[in-house]
Amino acid sequence: xxxxxxxxxxxxxxxxxxxxxxxxxxxxxxxxxxxxxxxxxxxxxxxxxxxxxxxxxxxxxxxxxxxxxxxxxxxxxxxxxxxxxxxxxxxxxxxxxxxxxxxxxxxxxxxxxxxxxxxxxxxxxxxxxxxxxxxxxxxxxxxxxxxxxxxxxxxxxxxxxxxxxxxxxxxxxxxxxxxxxxxxxxxxxxxxxxxxxxxxxxxxxxxxxxxxxxxxxxxxxxxxxxxxxxxxxxxxxxxxxxxxxxxxxxxxxxxxxxxxxxxxxxxxxxxxxxxxxxxxxxxxxxxxxxxxxxxxxxxxxxxxxxxxxxxxxxxxxxxxxxxxxxxxxxxxxxxxxxxxxxxxxxxxxxxxxxxxxxxxxxxxxxxxxxxxxxxxxxxxxxxxxxxxxxxxxxxxxxxxxxxxxxxxxxxxxxxxxxxxxxxxxxxxxxxxxxxxxxxxxxxxxxxxxxxxxxxxxxxxxxxxxxxxxxxxxxxxxxxxxxxxxxxxxxxxxxxxxxxxxxxxxxxxxxxxxxxxxxxxxxxx
Length: 524
Fold this sequence. Notes:
By secondary structure, the protein is an all-alpha fold.
């Protein structure tokens, strides 16, 4: 696939526009020097539309777009459970988690852990998240994003890694979170428009004179098994989506960890003007998640008819892009680049936040505000440089890099959810119990992984996460009872917290639940 001159011009216009917009929205008033709150928390002034859009922009990157389209091609609509169940998870986060975080003016997840348990677990988890974000998340976005660019355009992959890293760093380096969040509405609008265009044209091509509706009907008629949401045990893809577990099992653990306790996701909501504003943003993001399968899964399913003999599933999305005329192809490619850049910028910003506020500021307690901002910028530059240098060495040897990343993070996810859920809702949880959950999650996950690799025990990844969560939870409760927390350890305020939400939020929640009931009833 190649891009025409008009396509390249559209891409260039996007790059110049988004860079200029980021600098403009994050500008300071004359004479005002940015503080750490300005830089890392967008002055705690984000409106709901920026929060909702930025949550999705941080979430969706090239590996999700191309990877989930490939999964749509192989597995079918069932892979949409990751997106649709995330919508419900977001509402739970908005109603039950955010009131506690915002009441306590939480800025980072390690900060919450210190106020709830003590300094040891804060330091351990801060270092863990920094290593994870730099060597897993940043490298994966650079590597898989560069693969996407190379697949679509043929552009040298190593040069693509450098270009993606430098641009994502440059456009948010001066403005921090405000530059990222306030431009993400443009990034998400481009992503949604690009995805809807490619889906509409693909289905219209299938439907002929009948249009997109006829194309969708043809797809259902020819591939009814690809519309199964809950896979049976005899389905060849049961290991990826183990039946009812997508509704009642380990998927909940993964979603709650990702949307509730992940710094580069939750940081947007923590920077809201107010709790109601954050909850409106969460509801907006939930509805965008309901739309995501149309954008990232449907094109892959359309390829079942339009490109039935692909050599690799991940070719589905780029192949569908070839259906687009000149100009529209440039717009959709710009949307793909927007997803990569927005997601990478979000992770880099959160790396600088954790490093500066959870580690540097704790060691250098009297550091002036303007110096904290400088340290944050240096940390961002360092993270991108490390990511560029290590992306190929770390991930170049894996044919299934994204699956490896999911497997790796799954070792820690159950323990993280246990630590936070007990910390939020059980006053007797102790630091010893939390550390037990963290260590136990890794050890038990490793045991299951080894049994799977040696062929001694076949256990779907999602079920493994659920079982490890339950065992870690029980262990944390027992240890907390045996080794109680120190009397002065609990510094999280749980008084004067109301879980009451606005009528608009409640109606939005009803709408999400109704949608899920309908789609799972139709395509169970």
